[in-house]
Inverse folding.
């Protein structure tokens, strides 16, 4: 065989080996990626019979919804395994539309939004709360504002016109004798407010944690006041479930509420629990720096409470009446029309998760 032919054969063999090796390497990498990074239960969920599908629970990356990822994370270590499929949204409008369209079956939303949706005939029921306190009015650290009255005429961001944070501003305005149009309120997705404050696009914002903490840590924001200054036992986000889910699979709703209740007790049990939650929620769910959540959850722990989470008629009647007074609701919808308390009634006897950082099993 001529030298040129030998060289061609050897080159072909080498090329074949490179191609085969590349294909094998790609297959191995793809397999590892699929094993490590793809949530196969979520991918295959839609192919299961309806009665066996895991429900999808929507949330946004704020601490009043922290019990959602905490429950998902810890339950994966329990004997029963993953309870539901969490899905994160960046703002309430998208979350609301997904709930209405049945793309998610349960969600954490702000209380006034739940009342408004129920009044509009959207088939949902309030089944539990997210937390107490946890919202604050934040101003620029280098700005002149030292009391709420000095915000007259200023631009302040709110998460939604259907939010407790908006109502909180009206309570503060009443305390200062200010008219309802004294502030220029603009709706803004929670993850955007800290950057807007730093850029001086707004003068202040009222939002749930960890965004007040983000402005504090960044050195450009200062807490003007916390929600409980004008609204004791303030509630922000609440857990709602679609009525068809409640009717067809009440046991699934009960498991969800039980898990949320147990996570609230677990978070309030100790500082190490909150530090651990800040780590795994920040890294795996919210995609936020763990030190940010750690700040929000522990400086001090009373900044946010995860107890007394059973829906209370007086709380919701107050929210409803304020919505009517401030022009976002035109019907006095009764508490019983949009709540289902049987799940919370059972959840009150639940105990905290038995789980410590590093445990291989949760109970």
């Amino acid at each position: 065989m001529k030298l040129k032919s030998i060289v061609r054969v050897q080159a072909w063999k080498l090329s074949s080996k490179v191609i085969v090796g590349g294909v094998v390497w790609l297959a191995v990498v793809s397999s590892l990626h699929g094993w490590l990074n793809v949530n196969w239960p979520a991918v295959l969920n839609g192919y299961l019979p309806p009665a066996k599908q895991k429900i999808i629970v929507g949330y946004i990356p704020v601490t009043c919804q922290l019990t959602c990822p905490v429950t998902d994370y810890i339950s994966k270590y329990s004997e029963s395994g993953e309870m539901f499929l969490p899905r994160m949204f960046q703002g309430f409008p998208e979350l609301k539309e997904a709930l209405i369209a049945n793309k998610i079956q349960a969600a954490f939303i702000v209380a006034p939004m739940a009342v408004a949706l129920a009044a509009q005939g959207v088939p949902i029921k309030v089944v539990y709360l997210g937390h107490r306190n946890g919202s604050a009015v934040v101003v620029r650290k280098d700005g002149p504002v030292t009391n709420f009255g000095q915000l007259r005429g200023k631009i302040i961001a709110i998460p939604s016109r259907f939010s407790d944070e908006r109502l909180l501003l009206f309570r503060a305005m009443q305390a200062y004798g200010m008219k309802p149009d004294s502030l220029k309120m603009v709706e803004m997705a929670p993850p955007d407010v800290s950057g807007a404050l730093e850029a001086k696009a707004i003068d202040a914002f009222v939002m749930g944690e960890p965004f007040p903490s983000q402005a504090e840590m960044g050195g450009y924001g200062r807490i003007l006041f916390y929600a409980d200054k004008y609204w004791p036992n303030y509630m922000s986000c609440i857990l709602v479930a679609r009525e068809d889910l409640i009717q067809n699979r009440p046991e699934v709703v009960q498991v969800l509420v039980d898990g949320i209740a147990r996570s609230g007790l677990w978070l309030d049990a100790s500082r190490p629990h909150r530090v651990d939650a800040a780590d795994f929620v920040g890294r795996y769910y919210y995609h936020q720096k763990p030190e940010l959540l750690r700040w929000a959850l522990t400086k001090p722990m009373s900044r946010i409470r995860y107890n007394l989470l059973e829906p209370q008629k007086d709380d919701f009647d107050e929210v409803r009446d304020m919505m009517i007074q401030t022009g976002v609701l035109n019907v006095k919808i009764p508490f019983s029309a949009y709540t289902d308390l049987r799940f919370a009634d059972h959840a009150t006897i639940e105990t905290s998760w038995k789980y410590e950082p590093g445990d291989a099993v949760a109970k």
